[in-house]
Amino acid sequence: MVDRVGTDRAGTDLAAADPVEVNRALVLDGLPHGFLGRRGGVSTGEVAGLNVGHGSGDDPDIVQRNRQLAAHAVLPGARLATVYQVHSPDCVTLGVEPWSEDTAADERPKADAIVTDRPGMVLGVLTADCAPVLFADRQAGVIGAAHAGWRGALAGVTDTTIAAMEALGAKRENIAAAVGPCIAQGSYEVDAAFRDRFLTDDFPNARFFAPGRADHFQFDLEGYVLCRLRAAGIAHPEGLRLDTYADAERFYSFRRATHRGELAYGRQISLIGLPA
After folding, report:
1. What burial letters (b/e) apply to 167-194, b meaning 16+ CB within 10 Å?
2. Measured distance CA(73)–CA(6) in Å, rounded
3. Domains of the chain with bracketed CATH
4. What secondary structure letter does DSSP report for 255?
5. What is the DSSP code string of 136-197?
6. Residue from 138, 150, 141 nearest 219 by CA
7. pLDDT band for position 98 (50/70/90)?
8. What is the pTM of this model?
């Protein structure tokens, strides 16, 4: 599902040229959440749009405005919490005293997933080809968000997120999960050494690699993450099947920017919240 969410134009901090586009998952229907792209922000130049990446070279004040726009589009009035992502399997739990969005990016917890049971919070993960995964146990009132690049996915970032949710009272049979926009198999060429990492971990992973040009393969990151979720006990995880690389108008992509020789690339954000 795709929504065009209008922003609050009463204050200049939430002024944007266009509405923020919010992609939603059916399995998370009724919960404040969204997989956002680049539409609706105030950045310009190569990272034009809703760029939320402090490491993109964009003006920090503009990035902060874009983060406010993003959070407001999903859960107005909620406090946004993100982590300093390091391509790990690590997950942190947001407690009674959350860190502030004013905290410098490199001073936030270093992890690639975050969970909470605190109302009034919205959790976010940043991506630019990696797979964002949003989680929720409606009955327990526990949510989570994970950044699953190939390293984190292979190391089990979705497994550690589920375990952290269980520590807050969630039950994995009640957890809904969705994988948002990421680089699709047709756009993700890898070499034989990359493929061998996955086959060494579990030989049946070969099914996620389609033949490509000589000594290269096409990797299905979304399919792999969905398989990990099912193996962990998530009954019906949903994949949105949106390719960040192929759709330059809607999404940022590290690989596309690299292939084009661009000096900077933006980051999009995926969010899930608990109403106060």
Report:
1. ebebebeebbbbbbbbbbbebbebeeee
2. 7
3. 2-184+220-274 (3.60.140.10)
4. H
5. EETTTTEEEEEEE-HHHHHHTHHHHHHHHHHHTT--GGGEEEEE-SB--GGG-EEEHHHHHH
6. 150
7. low
8. 0.93
